[in-house]
């Protein structure tokens, strides 16, 4: 069955960086675009970044453009989100998503001094 497992979250000071990872299994990973979302307490789930199946096309939410980078390794069935210059408003649970409605359990990112 489809499985998405995120990792790499944690507590970081403002201006810091984290690299989030999502390990995918149970489907032909290289056939599907992937997305990272985030959800902060009391807020709606927000699309953060998108990457096409080949990795040749990416898009970002305006709030993270220039600070976050999405990438993937189709040989390893992994998708990554490099987060730089983190701000307190980036605090959220970050979730990996593939089409057909599958989600990971999320990884918590907390940005605080």
List keywords for this structure.
113 residues; mainly beta; seven-stranded mixed beta sheet; globular
Write the layout of secondary structure elements.
Elements: E1 3-7, E2 10-12, E3 18-25, E4 34-39, E5 46-51, E6 58-60, E7 68-73, E8 78-83, E9 92-98, E10 102-103, E11 107-111
Parallel strand pairs: 2-11
Antiparallel strand pairs: 1-3, 3-8, 4-5, 4-9, 5-6, 7-8, 9-10, 9-11
Biggest sheet character: 7 strands, mixed
Oligomer: single chain
Number of helices: 0
Average pLDDT, rounded to a whole number, is 97
Which term fits the overall shape?
globular
Q: What fraction strand?
A: over 45%
Radius of gyration of CA atoms, rounded to a whole number: 13 Å
What's the N-to-C terminus distance? 40 Å
Q: Helicity, in percent?
A: under 10%
Helix and strand element order: EEEEEEEEEEE
Q: Please provide the count of β strands.
A: 11
Could you list the spans in which at least 5 consecutive residues all have pLDDT below 50?
none
- Which structural class matches the secondary elements? mainly beta
């Amino acid at each position: 069955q489809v499985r998405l497992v995120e990792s790499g979250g944690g507590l970081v000071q403002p201006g810091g960086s984290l690299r989030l990872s999502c390990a995918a299994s149970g489907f032909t990973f290289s056939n599907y675009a992937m997305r990272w979302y985030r959800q902060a307490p009391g807020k709606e789930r927000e699309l953060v970044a998108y990457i096409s199946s080949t990795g040749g096309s990416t898009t970002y939410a305006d709030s993270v453009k220039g600070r976050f980078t999405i990438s993937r390794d189709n040989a390893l069935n992994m998708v990554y989100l490099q987060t730089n210059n983190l701000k307190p408003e980036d605090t959220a649970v970050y979730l990996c998503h593939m089409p057909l409605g599958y989600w990971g359990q999320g990884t918590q990112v907390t940005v605080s001094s």
